[in-house]
Amino acid sequence: MKDKRFKIANREAIIGIILVLVNFVWWYGFAYGMGDGDPRSYTYILGMPAWFFYSCVVGFVFMVVLVTLVVKFLFKEVPFEDEEGGKEE
Hints:
Blueprint lengths: L3 H31 L9 E2 L2 E2 H24 L16
Antiparallel strand pairs: 1-2
Helix pairs in contact: 1-2
């Protein structure tokens, strides 16, 4: 019988990979989608280029909130010991 902890761990690993991909798409989309290569044409927010602000500052806050929600609602508490309570042989 396969241990259900492995099923939970695999599911949570896939969720983690999805979170990394979302973070990368967010960062890449704003960093390379808004920056046109000529710094004279940039718009600035709080003294930072808009592409940097949205990519790194807002992206960081977005990912902190997203990861917090994912951990709270999708991840499960998993015991480290076997369900039988014995040692593996």
